[in-house]
Automatic annotation (TrEMBL):
Gene of this entry: LOC120276274
Name listed for the protein in its UniProt record: E3 ubiquitin-protein ligase ATL23-like
Subcellular localization: Membrane
Annotated GO CC locations: membrane
GO MF annotation, one: zinc ion binding
Transmembrane among keywords: yes
Membrane-spanning segments: 32-61
Organism: Dioscorea cayennensis subsp. rotundata (White Guinea yam)
InterPro entries according to UniProt: Znf_RING, Znf_RING/FYVE/PHD
UniProt keyword list: Membrane, Metal-binding, Transmembrane, Transmembrane helix, Zinc, Zinc-finger
Organism classification: Eukaryota, Viridiplantae, Streptophyta, Embryophyta, Tracheophyta
Annotated SUPFAM superfamilies: RING/U-box
SMART domains registered for this protein in UniProt: RING
Location of the RING-type domain: 108-150
Length: 161
């Protein structure tokens, strides 16, 4: 009977040991599932954060540099605080027709279209870059430099003594 009792005790211990092992493996599996879910959540949260920062930067860039709604005029440029060249200085710039005097290719750097034969083009004296007259005039009324090489077209004002 003692032997039988020990065998019974041993088998009961084995059942408990198997239950504990099964419980441990279930806990490991459950822990891995939770870690996987946490990892997926963190990846999604990180991507959402990056996208939100991107949208904020895009919004700020739009506020600081609004897209032009109409062609720039001398009055509009002055009102917006942009200082380009005056209309008088603009008329003094050379104008070419039929591709005459064009240097550096026949593509307008403002609109990126070719300057076709018969179209009016403006050639800047300081750098010899050429543009469509309308493109150059809109740019130069707002900016005092070449849109391609940034050469200043207006000499700096003389120092006041």
């Amino acid at each position: 009977m003692a032997w039988h009792g020990m065998a019974w005790h041993h088998s009961r211990h084995c059942i408990r040991h198997r239950d504990v092992e099964r419980w441990k493996s279930e806990m490991k599996r459950e822990k891995m599932i939770w870690l996987l879910l946490l990892g997926l959540f963190l990846v999604c949260a990180g991507m959402s954060l990056v996208f939100s920062v991107y949208l904020c930067l895009l919004w700020l860039a739009t506020i600081r540099n609004p897209p032009p709604s109409a062609p720039v005029t001398e009055a509009g440029a002055a009102k917006a605080g942009m200082r380009g060249i005056s209309a008088v200085e603009l008329e003094e710039l050379a104008e070419a027709k039929d591709g005459g005097g064009l240097v550096g290719g026949s593509e307008c750097a403002v609109c990126l279209e070719d300057i076709e034969a018969g179209q009016r083009a403006r050639v800047l004296r300081s750098c010899r870059h050429s543009f469509h007259v309308g493109c150059a005039d809109a740019w130069l009324l707002a900016h005092p430099h070449c849109p391609l090489c940034r050469t200043t077209l207006i000499p700096p004002p003389p120092p006041s003594s």
